[in-house]
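Field notebook, page 69. I keep forgetting to write these up properly, so this time I am using the form the group agreed on. The chain and the ligand, iron/sulfur cluster, are recorded exactly as supplied. Prediction of the bound pose follows.
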Amino acid sequence: METKRYKKNDAFTILWTPSKCTHAGVCVKTLPKVYHPRDKPWILPEEGEIEELKSQIKNCPSGALGFEE
Ligand code: SF4
């Protein structure tokens, strides 16, 4: 399963597995400054603080989002 990587800095990277994403939009509603579904790349991890990114990633209903520290 392909997982895409969106690096914030050397300490934190957001992972996204498109085939798992149900496009429920929870991420976009929670952190619209980070998730931009119409753009490429659609995730801008530099726009969010690590703690808010983590708590939002844990709320992704499909498990498509993850992170690496
Ligand atoms: S919250 Fe998760 S499942 Fe929903 S759109 Fe975002 S990445 Fe996809």
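OBSERVATIONS:
- The chain is about 20% helix and 20% strand.
- The beta strands are 4-9, 12-16, 65-68.
FOLLOW-UP: compare against the apo run.
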